[in-house]
Amino acid sequence: MARSGSAVQKEEKKTVVIAIANHKGGVGKTTTCINLADNLAQMGKLVCVVDMDPQANASQHIGMSHPAEINYTTAELLTNPELPLTYFVHDETRIDGVALIYGSMALDNADDALRMEPRPNEVLRDRLQPLLGKADYIIIDCPPSLRLLTSNALAAATHLLIPVESGSPYGLYGLADLTKRVQQITRINPTLINLGALLIRHDDRQLVCQNIEQKAMGLFGKLVPVKIGTTTKINQSSTVQTSLRMFDSTNKVAKQYKELAKYIDNETAA
């Protein structure tokens, strides 16, 4: 993968693989994926977004084509191991420095194919090997489920980030199941590092947010110190297929995602 107009990077480098996971939908996984990728790219990092969600929202957000027009998506990546990874990585996206492996609706059927594999949880990790040492960051946007697609993302990741909808009384619903799944995957991926829960739509003044913050700390044992607030401009930036920073760099949430990128880059540098 390469930046626009530059030669493909040849030198080996450390690649951080971040799975953004929560099997509850609508908690900001894709928003975090896109805006984290954008801000890391702004720091000069080479980033590849891997869209593992059948809804393919990340792909529709930053891809130059609609996912339905793409022949080689994560569905084929997981089910056709004879195809080289170069078929799948699209260097040109709507965010400079961010490459994309498209998701597609065909991922809905990928679980059945993965179950036929001798190591069904480790297919993605094997397929992403050629990117290691090339990209600085691989960010995996997981689907809202705990089935094999998410398990593959967790097995392939070096780090886990868990967005939690702080502004909802049901923000922690089912997340105990996610922690159990993570514990199971650490038998396959014992070096997986949990970056912690990332509070989304958080407002320190609201009692519900205060309660979710306390409970999330008790459940996960670690919170990302950067908290993401609420802004209508997230939906607006999504509508015009751009990042929040590119839409309005002065927005408070845009600045929070910039701070998040700096924090994660520092946390994963060791």
Present the secondary structure layout.
Layout: E1 16-20, H1 29-42, E2 47-51, H2 57-62, H3 74-79, E3 98-101, H4 110-115, H5 123-127, E4 137-141, H6 148-156, E5 159-165, H7 175-185, E6 193-200, H8 207-220, H9 233-239, H10 244-247, H11 252-267
Parallel strand pairs: 1-4, 1-5, 2-3, 2-4, 5-6
Helix pairs in contact: 1-11
Task: Describe this protein's structure.
It holds the Pfam family AAA_31. The chain has one domain: P-loop containing nucleotide triphosphate hydrolases (Rossmann fold, 3-Layer(aba) Sandwich), CATH 3.40.50. It is built from eleven helices and six strands. It starts with 15 loop residues before the first strand and ends with a helix. Helix 1 packs across helix 11. Strands 3-2-4-1-5-6 form a six-stranded parallel β-sheet, with helices on both faces. It has 270 residues and is α/β, with parallel strands linked by helices. Helix 7 links the parallel strand 5 and strand 6.
Helix/strand-derived class? alpha/beta
- Regions with pLDDT < 50 over 5+ consecutive residues? 4-10
Number of helices: 11
Beta-strand content bin: 5-15%
**How many strands, what sense, and barrel or not for the largest sheet?**
6 strands, parallel
Instruction: Give the strand line-up of the largest sheet.
Output: 3-2-4-1-5-6
Helix % is 25-40%
CATH class: Alpha Beta
Query: How many β-strands, per DSSP?
Result: 6
What name goes with the CATH superfamily? P-loop containing nucleotide triphosphate hydrolases
Characterize the overall form.
globular
Q: Would you tell me the overall average pLDDT?
A: 92
Rg on CA atoms, Å: 17 Å
Order of helices and strands: EHEHHEHHEHEHEHHHH
Distance between the termini: 23 Å
Could you say what the CATH architecture is? 3-Layer(aba) Sandwich
